[in-house]
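Subject: for your reference before the review

Hello V.,

The reviewers asked for a structural picture of the protein, and I figured it would be easier to keep everything in one thread rather than splitting it across files. Below is the amino acid sequence we used in the manuscript, unchanged from the supplementary table.
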Amino acid sequence: MNRIVKNILAIVVGFLIGSIVNIGLVNLGMAIVPLPDGADVSTMEGVRESMKLLTPMNFVFPFLAHALGTLAGAYTAARMAASFQMLIAIGIGLFFLMGGIMMVVMCGGPIWFIASDLLLAYLPMSFLGAILARKTKPLTPEQHDPS
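And here is what came back from the structure prediction:
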């Protein structure tokens, strides 16, 4: 398969895997840590208004969803990529970071959560995903030691 096509496919699949992990953890979090009485997250307006009702426990799964979704997406993309694995993984992290910034602009939230989420959940996790992919990717025949 052409390297460019393989890299584009890696980016698409990495984004899809990261999104699935993200959505899954957000939904799991709402099942495990119930929303406080009066919180309505069915609309953006409701989410904005509900922010003041949420406890720190309500932010654990969103953080995990953002961090682990980015990690899974970056790892998958870097593992599948034919070249530029680190750049592709960081690109996945930047894409998810843009989504995180958009959510902050639309919904707000406590400063401690916004800072930790934007600084720790995206770019560090995409870098880690690339490192893990490099360590687990099988060697090509050219990379094997002939001795």
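For the response letter, the relevant points are probably these. The mean pLDDT is 91. The chain has one domain: 3-135.

Happy to draft the paragraph if you're swamped.

O.
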